[in-house]
Write a structure and sequence with these properties.
Immunoglobulin-like; 2 domains; six-stranded antiparallel β-sheet; about 25% strand
């Protein structure tokens, strides 16, 4: 997954207008069966986290926030029953995107996280400075440890032994050597900022999304 997503983003950056925001989506009226239908709810949660933490303009298509599975050209009304607790998931991710300047910047850096097959990791940051955000995604049903090499420019900020996971609303201990070792739950989502960011942690718990940044 990591190589495919990285190649797609970098190819778009090379051939597109550098001033444009790329429109990103999991579903639209021409994609056929919904992502949740073809890949399941666990994978869908992780994919939604990726959608809302990558650079670009994310689309939450009609019914995505409750896991709707209808086909858009069928004459069927959307069932707005939230059977999978997805509304809270989307609300939390959108709130974090609003609150964290790094998540609505245009800058990102993919990382060679291991084990590579089930994991995808990248840094979101601002060229003008400020707190970076480390995003780690586990697209497998296995709990595992992610090995994350950090570029020198970020090692001193994120490599201090403890990080705040804004998505899980907790602080986690990470092993530090020439890389980070981060525990990943099954189908896990980590949105990590430097330890000590109490104000960010409190905001992620209480705030609701108020805007839709690029």
């Amino acid at each position: 997954m990591a190589d495919g997503v990285t190649n797609a983003i970098e190819t778009t950056a090379r051939i597109g207008d550098p001033a444009a925001l790329v429109f990103r989506f999991l579903n639209n009226n021409d994609t056929g069966p919904r992502f949740i239908t073809t890949r399941g709810v666990d994978c869908y949660r992780v994919a939604a986290a990726m959608l809302l933490t990558l650079p670009g303009l994310p689309c939450v298509y009609n019914g995505d926030e409750v896991g709707a599975e209808f086909l858009p050209y069928d004459d069927v009304a959307i069932d707005w029953t939230d059977r999978h607790g997805l509304r809270d998931h989307f609300t939390r991710l959108i709130a974090l995107r609003v609150q964290q300047p790094a998540l609505h910047s245009r800058e990102w850096m993919p990382l060679p996280v291991e084990p590579a097959r089930p994991l995808f990791g990248y840094l979101r940051y601002r060229a003008a400075g400020g707190s970076p955000v480390l995003v780690l995604l586990n697209v497998s049903p296995a709990e595992l440890d992610a090995t994350v090499p950090l570029p020198d420019a970020f090692a001193g900020i994120l490599g201090r032994g403890e990080l705040t996971d804004l998505y899980a609303r907790e602080r986690i201990r990470v092993a530090v050597a020439d890389h980070l070792t981060v525990p990943m739950p099954a189908w896990g989502i980590r949105i990590l900022v430097p330890e000590g960011s109490d104000r960010d942690r409190e905001r992620c718990i209480t705030a609701q999304p108020t805007a839709r940044p690029p």
